[in-house]
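Run log // design_07
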């Protein structure tokens, strides 16, 4: 009988799924561009570990570079799910072992989570600039309205002063006329006659 050939253990990512509550799962090909739009969902990675040794108890461990600071605890679950990952670039490191044997590392899997429209890095500066523009435009418009209102008030005040002045002139003329006439007869009085005579003498000179 020939000797049984021992094969080295292998580990790799078998599938990547994007899961949204109430929606069908999205299965991605490992050959596709590793870029995902989370949209509030979760990203699930399934592992395939092949080991021909006789020991039992497969265990798995992962480290998501760019999100975690260290490796996770060993678990028998051959899948990992990440919920609502923030936008950014990540590298998933995985390894597996059987029992307490040496761990087998899988090829790191790099991927990117695309930002939603309100998570774009240019959005905050754009919003701030827009807010400053709107505030500035509002202040300018407010100042223009104030100047226009002042002009209208000045025009109304000029009209009022002109009308009051005209009324005062008419009143003075009426008072002057009353002063030059007799109160009973309405005929020009002595004072009016003296003024007329004085004016005629001055004209004759």
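design_07 sequence
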């Amino acid at each position: 009988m020939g000797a049984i050939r021992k094969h080295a253990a292998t580990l790799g990512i078998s599938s990547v799924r994007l899961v949204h509550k109430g929606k069908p799962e999205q299965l991605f090909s490992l050959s596709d561009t590793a870029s995902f739009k989370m949209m509030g969902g979760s990203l699930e990675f399934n592992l395939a570990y092949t080991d021909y040794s006789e020991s039992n108890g497969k265990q798995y461990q992962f480290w998501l570079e760019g999100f975690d600071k260290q490796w996770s605890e060993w678990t028998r679950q051959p899948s990992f799910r990440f919920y609502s990952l923030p936008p950014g670039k990540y590298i998933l490191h995985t390894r597996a072992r059987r029992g307490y044997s040496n761990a087998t590392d899988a090829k790191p899997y790099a991927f990117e989570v695309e930002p939603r429209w309100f998570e774009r890095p240019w959005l905050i500066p754009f919003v701030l600039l827009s807010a400053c523009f709107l505030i500035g435009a509002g202040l300018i418009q407010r100042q223009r309205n104030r100047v226009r209102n002042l002009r209208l008030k000045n025009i109304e005040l000029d009209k009022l002063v002109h009308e009051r002045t005209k009324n005062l002139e008419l009143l003075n003329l009426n008072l002057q006329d009353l002063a030059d006439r007799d109160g009973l007869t309405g005929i020009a009085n002595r004072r009016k006659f003296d003024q007329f005579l004085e004016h005629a003498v001055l004209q004759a000179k």
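The longest helix spans residues 123-179.
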